[in-house]
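Team,

Forwarding the record for the chain on the shared tracking sheet. I've put the sequence and predicted structure together so nobody has to dig through attachments.
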Amino acid sequence: MFRQFLKPIWKRKSRNLMLSLEIGLTFVVVFAIAAAACRYYQLYHLPIGFDYTDVWSVQMEQPNDEGMKNDALTYDKFKRSLEALPQVQQVAFANSSPYEHSTWRTTYSLPEGGREADSDLMTVSDEFFAVMDMPLTEGRWFSSADEGAAREPVVINRRLAEALFPGKSAIGQILSDGEQGSKDRQQYTVAGVVEDLRNHGEYMVPTNFLIARFSTQTSKRGVTTILLKVKPGTERVFESTLSNQLKLVRNDWSYRISPLSDLRRSRLHDTVVPLIVFSVIAGFLLLMVAFGLFGVLWQNTTQRIPEIGLRRAIGATAGDIYRQIIAEQLLLTTLAMLVGLVLLVQLPITGVLGENLSWPLFFVAAGVSMAIMALVSVLCALYPAWRASRLSPTQALHYE
């Protein structure tokens, strides 16, 4: 039966070649959109490592774009002044806020050499973990008890721990910043391990992460972000009160105040909009292919009316004609998609996209895109097949 369907396609191979190329290219575009959507869905359901609810961010900006200096007295004033507000439960400092478009990245390695890994970095005060309600997997958080320690304590995520210390506990291990052989390398001691931290939110690709300690006494540089844990149900009108309180400490600075829920919404919007735009473009492309496919099928069916009449005259039923035309179109679409899959399968084989296109994601995206293309092909073939099946043998044989 396969040969029976393949023979008419081969007879019109020159005409079907361009149609197959169009179907194949559309399949690749639909696959790309499906793979991106599946990856976004997967990332959205991974843990981010913190709780953004009831947390507000304050970005401090000095005049004349001066670098933030580590002034213990100023930070202490900010902390005591903000904690005096009845809406504020806890105050922490950090070099950046979650969901902000800011990334610090450096290389960490073992002091004796051998292993090294690039990692995102945040510098935070001791209260950060309580404000962000972060779960600890192993070890402990750093605290004021670490003030003056020979090696600065850090908290790392599981991914970085496995990269630098595979097969053993990371707690108490020593690592250094900078590439091996570089000068002025600083050593750190791993105090705690978290399962994961994705500070850019739900659509951030998991990566190595290290959290360093900010101390108003010993850190070389200051930080520019205040994170506030506020009481549940705090309204946005609190922003005015908060701004006034901040200006009581430093009236010459400017402040950008945002609940993390707003920053999260903005970040999700910025990430999803490009996917929606490409999906709309792919939808229009799919629609154009559908119209072209429908026209070609109509023309092919019209040219084959004498052939259809001969088949009806020798005993083929209307259902046989109907199924033949649809099956031929599905076979043509399947052959075009198989060629596309041969090219696309190179991506997970070579690992060029890493975790963004793992084998499970590839199979899901391939299945979804193949189902969409098959559905479009069947819908385009339904009316031409129905029209051909309605012809009587006498009409078909006398058609000119």
